[in-house]
Amino acid sequence: MPLSDIRVIDLTIARAGPTAVRVLADWGADVIRVESPVSTGSADSGRLTSDFQNLHRNKRALSIDLKTSPGRELVVALARTADVVVENWRPPVKHKLRVGPEELMAVNPRLIYASISGFGQDGPDAGRGGVDQIAQGRVGLMSITGRKGQGPTRVGVPISDLAAGIHLATGILAALHERSRSGKGQWVRTSLLEAMAAMLDFQATRWTIDGETPGQAGNDHPTLIPMGTFESADGHMNIAAPSGRIWVSFCRAIARDDLLDDADYSDPPARSRNRDALTSEIAAVLATKTTNEWIAILDQHGVPCGPVQTISEAFQDEQIQHLGLTRTYEHPELGHIDLIRNPVTMTRSVGTTARPTPAADEHTDEILTELGIDEATIKDLRATGVVR
What we know:
- The protein is of the alpha/beta class.
- The protein has helices at residues 16-26, 50-55, 69-80, 91-96, 101-107, 132-138, 159-182, 192-199, 202-208, 244-253, 268-273, 275-286, 291-300, 311-314, 318-323, 364-370, 375-383; strands spanning 7-10, 30-35, 59-63, 84-87, 112-117, 187-191, 227-231, 236-240, 305-307, 326-331, 335-340.
- It has a 6-stranded parallel β-sheet, sandwiched between helices. A 3-stranded antiparallel β-sheet has the order 7-8-9, with helices on one face. It has a two-stranded antiparallel sheet with strand order 10-11.
């Protein structure tokens, strides 16, 4: 696998950090997840949830009490053997535990130390804890999500966590590539706030360049028309026919060639100015046939379109099933489990789930033995609560 020669020490919690590590684990990195004995124990039942299984697949795991000197020394020993360390605590925590980039890169100058925080590693709010919905609201995403006049709306997935994780994974891979030239590690970092700002994409530049404050547009595209969700005779469908040849093909497909000659809809700016009227014209036509009937017609005319499906319907979709987006593997307690595979396919390299999420201390002896720690010492570490 592409990253089978890379060792990652996973100190992450919650979702953003584990998302970054999951990318590396899916590509075959040897990921060693370090958990606190305090966070395991009675909470072990939570490990069997679908969410936890999804976040922590393809790893080995051990539990270490980082608040003890012997526990810290174990993490330092792991860092000596590692290519990457990933954490997403509040910024002061790593320094308080003395496992920050300065300490770990001092013992391993080739180490890539990677961090995610809520609001950045420095600045007036750096010490605050941050979660997905807080970032969604603060960066403005909730102000452009949902229907106009219905108030701020969160996105249906933890998008700032996921974006920060994926951006950090990209940064880690870039730093590993740079290390192949320089021989030196570096500290790679992002935050929920930074990643979410980047995800605003053209909505952000509507402000930074055009000086326009975007608002809510519901299921319509904010600037292009017709491009959004419409009701059919039996449900909803998405259509994208905002300009050029596609707009002409769409009007002909719905037998409304007259729209092409209407000055109110003559070009994209005109259609945007007259959005409500045009939407009403289109909606009246689309309500006369079912979603599948319209998809067949629009496909013949080359107009991008598709159904609006539930999650269960989506995973029964013929194309999604053809792509094989899920992988089944065996969990010792849960049996057959289907997880979403890595979404990238390569010609030669394999990127797929390989091992189930481990128990918190499943590989403690194995990993400590790899560090050269003998059986008696491991027994003492366990007896004193440093490891579990």
